């Protein structure tokens, strides 16, 4: 374990990944600066109560970022492309611009370790615009020769409690996904993304310069439904949502699921990840840990 050489600035601190990273760092005794737009927002207040120091700013305000980085040892960077419930091309362009700004400022500030949470599959030429934006940010960070760790998480287990929550139909648990039911799908808990961010900062000799795909389980939609149904004693059932139906809601999400169907679960060495983080959760572990209910 490395000595804590200074504070970590967490960008995206009130989001799921940023919040998980901030808490994992605080649990390990790091000083955490949480970059927030509204210090009175409930999630910001919760971070302050957990021990983080709130730093008010905006990604569009370079001066606020510069001030937040002053004297920091490391930066955890998570950027979202969401605009409301959809992914807009304008928001994607904003994300890429913000990522470049953070990288430029991190270089000028002499940041010792930048941990960037990207996406698994960004290097595969998927044709998905928001994947491309994250790949461009990765490339920009490398081109600046910043000391980095790239985290590439897969689909979130936590989405089964929100966007992809199953429904109940009599005695059936019904999982509706735009996936072929027998296609393997890689999954990770948001909690474990935060854990790996903290581990990377704790063990720079091991993680600096590495690009790490993150998954805790690989299951088909049929197996996902079986795992979640087991928590409630229901019979699992899967429904495949047509991609065209999804496209009517969000083009980017439709492209993503079409890509997932064409490219089954990536080759990620889960055993090696578990060696680095023994408490890495399977979907069944996550359901128990979060007290998941239908």
Structure commentary:
The strands form 4 sheets. Strands 3-2-1-4-7-8-13 form a 7-stranded parallel sheet, sandwiched between helices. Strands 9-12-14 form a 3-stranded mixed sheet. The protein has a 3-stranded mixed sheet with strand order 10-11-15, covered by helices on one side. The protein is globular and about 55 Å long. It is built from 12 helices and 15 strands. It is 42% helix and 20% strand.
Topology:
Elements: E1 8-11, H1 16-27, E2 32-36, H2 42-50, E3 53-56, H3 62-69, E4 74-77, E5 82-83, E6 86-87, H4 89-109, E7 113-117, H5 129-143, E8 148-153, E9 155-156, E10 167-169, E11 172-177, E12 185-188, H6 190-202, H7 204-207, E13 211-214, E14 217-219, H8 221-229, E15 235-240, H9 243-249, H10 251-262, H11 270-276, H12 283-289
Parallel strand pairs: 1-2, 1-4, 2-3, 4-7, 7-8, 8-13, 9-12, 11-15
Antiparallel strand pairs: 5-6, 10-11, 12-14
Helix pairs in contact: 1-6, 3-4, 4-5, 9-10
